[in-house]
Amino acid sequence: MTSTVPRTGRPRLARFVKMRYDKARERQVLLGPETVVVLNPTGADILGLCDGAHSVGDIVDELGRRYDRVVDDEVTSFLERLASRRWVEIPDD
């Protein structure tokens, strides 16, 4: 299956979505209208780089430096799922 997320795209959180540290859960969470998504550390790292400045390729490369094994398809699949919910915007520059 071909990804719809371009490697040159520069993802950013949608205006109505915020990432915050939840003290009670001791985890990063994604906050949207009537929605709270508890993130695992890798998901939080990916979204922490979704600032509109880093391309998808940059994010994959940076995660490769942080972790032993990063699968490009897993990162793009994660971003694709969030984009389909309109929590992440991925313009292709």
Automatic annotation (TrEMBL):
Its annotated pathway reads: Cofactor biosynthesis; pyrroloquinoline quinone biosynthesis
Source domain of life is Bacteria
Q: Which UniProt keywords apply?
A: PQQ biosynthesis
| Residue stretches spanning the membrane | none
- Coiled-coil annotated residue ranges, if any: none
Q: Which Pfam families match?
A: PqqD
The UniProt subunit note reads as follows: Monomer. Interacts with PqqE.
Q: Which protein are we looking at?
A: Pyrroloquinoline quinone biosynthesis protein D
Q: Which organism is it from?
A: Actinomycetospora straminea
